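Continuing from the previous page...

OK, I double-checked the sequence for SnoaL-like domain-containing protein against my notes and this is the correct one:
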Amino acid sequence: MTTARDILTGVLDGWRSAVGAHDPDRVARHFTEDAIFQGLHPYSVGRDGVAKYYDAQPLGLTADYRVLEARRLADDLVLGYAGVEFGFTDRPPLPVHLGVLLRRTGDTWLIAHYQVSRL
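Thanks. Re-ran it with the corrected sequence; updated structure tokens here:
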């Protein structure tokens, strides 16, 4: 059986890759259609809001993360908590904490809830 940490790492690896490629639509595909998304700006619901948020981010943005906790709440739900450092080309990095709720849809794990908080 795949562990909660493995599931979380797989989803966050794909998210990080899409963020680093500055591909907002690809970032949004890592979220459910009805995902609640809270970055550092007002929240949105759904993939369109996620794509708009990441489209507004600067080129060269990177996201390095470290999983702090991962828990399987049910067969189709994983709760994750990570330390993330967003890197920029023109200013110091921004360390944050990220809480996510992942939901399995078919064979795919997607982010259903995403909330960032500054340290």
